[in-house]
Design goal:
This protein is mostly beta strands and 156 residues long. Helices cover 13% and strands 38% of the residues. The protein is built from 1 helix and 13 strands, in the order αβββββββββββββ. The longest helix has 20 residues.
């Protein structure tokens, strides 16, 4: 019996499972029903004084918020730059961005979160954008993984 064949099959199965596990993390999020804090999805509308949190799942979507809404951008990799606003007069930073590393992460692993908060100030449109070039240790990002951009439409 050839002992290499079962080992090759086992390795192939393990690689396939890892690939499928990675694909499972790209699902879409849904908006929370809680009025005070909402996780953003492609159709999120927030009322004045509400809090909205946008993460990777909100990338390339439009969020409609009222003046006074707090918008948090939490990107789950320390390879991301902190999000910035294209129109600070419409959506302005609320404090300094922060980076929190995961305690179990090895150095250079990119584990952790980059967070930035913003406040909707006046009616108008702004983009919250971030970028990265590395998607994992020694792994360059593909063109469709390098940018994060959420359109914020602020209503009166």
């Amino acid at each position: 019996m050839n002992l290499r064949r079962p080992t090759a099959i086992a390795l192939t199965c393990a690689c396939a499972l890892l690939a499928l596990a990675g694909c499972g993390s790209s699902g879409t999020s849904t908006a929370s029903s809680a009025p005070a804090s909402t996780t953003a999805s492609s159709s999120t509308t927030a009322s004045a004084g509400a809090a909205v949190t946008a993460d990777e799942h909100a990338n390339h979507t439009t969020l409609k918020v009222a003046v006074g809404t707090t918008i948090s951008v939490d990107l789950h990799s320390t390879y991301w730059s902190a999000a910035t606003s294209s129109a600070p007069d419409v959506v302005s930073p609320a404090g300094s961005p922060s980076t929190s590393a995961s305690p179990s992460c090895r150095p250079g692993g990119g584990c952790g979160t980059v967070s930035a908060s913003f406040t909707a100030r006046t009616p108008g449109t702004a983009h919250l954008a971030a970028s990265r070039t590395i998607c994992g240790e020694a792994l360059n990002c593909g063109p469709d993984q390098r940018t994060y951009d959420v359109t914020i439409e602020v209503t009166g």
